[in-house]
Amino acid sequence: MFDLTGKCALVTGGSRGIGRAIALALAQHGADVVINYARNAEAADRAVEDLRALGVRAEAVRGDVAVPEEAVGAVEAAIRALGRLDILVNNAGMTHDDLVLRLGQDDWDTVLNTNLRGTFFCTKAALRGMIRQRWGRIINVTSVAGLIGNAGQANYSAAKAGIIGFAKAVAKEVAGRNITVNAIAPGFVETEMTAALTEQQREAILRQIPMARTGVPADVAPAAVFLASEEAAYVTAHVLTVDGGLVSY
Predict the structure, then answer these.
(1) Distances (CA, A) of 40 to 46, 73, 174
(2) Sheet strands (E) in the chain
(3) Catalytic one of 37, 156, 234, 249
(4) Contact indicator for 231, 176 with CB cutoff of 8 Å
(5) Residue 249 burial by CB count (10 A; 0-12/13-18/19+): exposed, middle or buried?
(6) What are the average pLDDT values for consecutive 10-residue runs of the chain, which has 249 residues?
(7) Nearest to residue 134, comparing CAs of 165, 174, 169, 94?
(8) Among this protein's residues, is 156 annotated catalytic?
(9) How far apart are CA 98 and CA 162, in angstroms?
(10) Are residues 4 and 26 in contact, defined by beta-carbon separation less than 8 angstroms?
């Protein structure tokens, strides 16, 4: 079950956190993996070493997905490294939180550009080859913030909600080509992005989670493996929440 042997994947933002966990999980199930990173080359190199230790081909490519040329370049580099691209995980993201009345235009644009525009650029570049080969899996990492909003994160919530709408629209465009497009919506997951929260903020969040614990990146990764697999061939335009019950409706 969930055999990805021979499949080739690109994970954006794959050097740390959820992206790294997804890359490792794909490799554990046989996929060759290219990880994209924007700045931290050391973390990317360590991730590649861990991937290769699993017996798969692995490379790291630098590129800021918010820049169209660099996003396309990351996809093209992955194809050069692996020969093809079967699985794209749009994971690269960032936050810059503030109440909307204090939120500057640069903070709005930067978050939207990385999270939403980057997803568009990478998806468009990857789809050409997937359409020709008539097989593909596109997995977009969104957030429960895109489903229910989060005070102080108007920019992030808008970007993540946009990713959900984007995934549903593209899924309908390419379904006839045996390409699925889905989204994973993590809840509160312990990563570098959440490390700055105060203990008071953490306690407030925990009170909203029925499972009474925060998540870790390894909780999210199996969802990506499933959506990348043949077993998920009839799953598309879907948002899979991995949140300990935080979003219950």
Answers:
(1) 10, 18, 34
(2) 8-11, 32-37, 58-62, 87-90, 136-141, 179-186, 239-242
(3) 156
(4) no
(5) exposed
(6) 96 97 98 97 98 98 97 98 98 95 97 98 98 98 95 96 98 98 95 75 85 94 98 98 87
(7) 174
(8) yes
(9) 19
(10) yes
